[in-house]
Model the fold of this input.
Amino acid sequence: MNEINFKKIDKDNLELACQIQNEIFPKEDARQNYIEQINKASYRKEIDYYIVYNGNTPIGVTGIYSYPEYPNIAWLGWFGILKQFRNEGYGGITLDKSIELAKNKGYKEFRLYTDEYAKEAHKLYASRGLVKELYDNPSDKDKYIDAKIYIYSKSLDNGPITKWNNKLLGLKEQSDKEHNK
Done:
């Protein structure tokens, strides 16, 4: 295993990032999110997505974003390792480095959401001490989301983690944006 490093997605590597992401998540399209990062989307406090490399070999994607309403919370976005590199420890290293990146940026909490079908991801998040809770906000349901959604949280300042308690995530809005391009 070489050195795992992140390279920020920009206009020069956008197509590679989309190719990797589409292989990991074939039914979802991150292109708009990556373009929003490049163009500095105003509805986010911060948005940084990265191609994950093992040495010079691209192996996955990861990202950190935050909302102005929750300035102390970093969210993990588009986290995934290409199939041929899974079960070799890269997911854990990449998650650890993503958490460390959020901590170094001054965030107090680290969160992510995923659906019930990402069973291997659930094991990884639990192994890193992230606390799981069901997200079931009735205002955030739509015809494209047919799975249970879970939020995982971790304190970055050794304080207690507060539950998300079904505060609006904006999944319906995001899904509408993706499906009504």
